[in-house]
């Protein structure tokens, strides 16, 4: 839509909307006759599965191609990462059998979440423009940072919660876990209150676990969108005006580069924090009260 005027608010609002319907790339029409996806963020689901699969494949390749001799740079980097995750898991979870599962789980979480977060470093209009070209649809919706979607972040946190419950039952038995739910922390005389407090603890830990990741990545996404607007209306997805303000373009490049460099720390730190909290919560499931 050449010449269409789009405000900054419309630009940001557009980029914060998720794809919720399948697009027929041959006709540019939603395939509503196949299924109703109106309650599913298809872009977040697609990129989270794709990036998790890529992360697991990279780890698998690193494991299968490792040699006993002098390691190359890539192998040395992966060995340092694996050793770091394993040492952290050992410091939190004392059960050796549990660590055989939990440590690889934590490593997979860290790598997958890091890759999801790293999608924020791509130009904000790059993949939406490609998707728009494929579908032929103006104003095509496409969010590419899965962890900036609350549904994905909470789904990851719920996965950790389920793992905690599984290990609570495995370590203590179902009866022992139920006994703990009704007797800790105030004793059997306050069983209903104990149970309610324990349920609230599970809920609060899960919600805070997911919200922490979502909040930081959502804020980072907003900053990148604001930086994109520094370059002027040319930065929008659906048109490029004839005139380009060179001063704002320079600010756009400088601010984008500075924030991207700083954001590398954020995306790594958030992946680490999510993994560390997963270890802590699973470790608490091993404790007897």
UniProtKB/TrEMBL annotation:
Membrane topology: Multi-pass membrane protein
CDD domains, alphabetized: ATP-synt_Fo_a_6
Listed GO MF terms: proton-transporting ATP synthase activity, rotational mechanism
Alphabetized UniProt keyword annotations: ATP synthesis, Cell membrane, CF(0), Hydrogen ion transport, Ion transport, Membrane, Transmembrane, Transmembrane helix, Transport
Keyword Ion transport: yes
One Pfam assignment: ATP-synt_A
Keyword Metal-binding carried by entry: no
This protein's GO CC annotations: plasma membrane; proton-transporting ATP synthase complex
Predominant place of localization: membrane
Signal peptide: none
Residue intervals passing through the bilayer: 45-63, 101-119, 150-169, 218-240, 260-282
Localization: Cell membrane; Membrane
Role: Key component of the proton channel; it plays a direct role in the translocation of protons across the membrane.
Protein family membership: Belongs to the ATPase A chain family.
Protein known as: ATP synthase subunit a
Source organism of the structure: Conchiformibius kuhniae
């Amino acid at each position: 839509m050449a010449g269409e005027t789009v405000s900054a608010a419309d630009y940001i609002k557009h980029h914060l909307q998720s794809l919720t319907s399948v697009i027929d790339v041959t006709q540019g029409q939603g395939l509503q006759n196949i299924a109703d996806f109106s309650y599913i963020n298809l872009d977040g689901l697609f990129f989270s599965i794709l990036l998790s699969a890529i992360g697991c494949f990279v780890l698998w390749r690193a494991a299968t191609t490792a040699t006993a001799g002098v390691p190359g740079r890539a192998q040395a980097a992966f060995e340092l990462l694996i050793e770091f995750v394993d040492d952290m898991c050992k410091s939190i979870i004392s059960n050796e059998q549990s660590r055989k599962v939990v440590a690889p789980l934590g490593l997979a979480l860290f790598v997958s979440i890091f890759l999801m977060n790293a999608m924020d470093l791509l130009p904000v209009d790059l993949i939406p423009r490609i998707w728009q070209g494929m579908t032929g649809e103006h104003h095509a919706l496409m969010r590419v940072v899965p962890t900036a979607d609350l549904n994905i972040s909470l789904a990851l946190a719920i996965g950790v919660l389920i793992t905690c419950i599984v290990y609570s039952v495995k370590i203590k038995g179902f009866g022992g876990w139920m006994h703990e739910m009704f007797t800790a922390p105030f004793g059997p005389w306050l069983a209903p209150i104990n149970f309610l407090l324990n349920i609230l603890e599970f809920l609060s830990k899960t919600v805070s676990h997911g919200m922490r990741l979502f909040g930081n990545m959502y804020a980072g996404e907003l900053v990148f969108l604001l930086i994109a607007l520094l370059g002027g209306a040319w930065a929008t997805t659906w048109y490029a005006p004839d005139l380009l303000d060179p001063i704002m373009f320079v600010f756009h490049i400088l601010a984008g580069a500075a924030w991207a460099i700083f954001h590398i720390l954020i995306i790594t730190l958030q992946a680490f924090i999510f993994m560390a909290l997963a270890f802590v919560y699973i470790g608490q499931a091993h404790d007897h009260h």
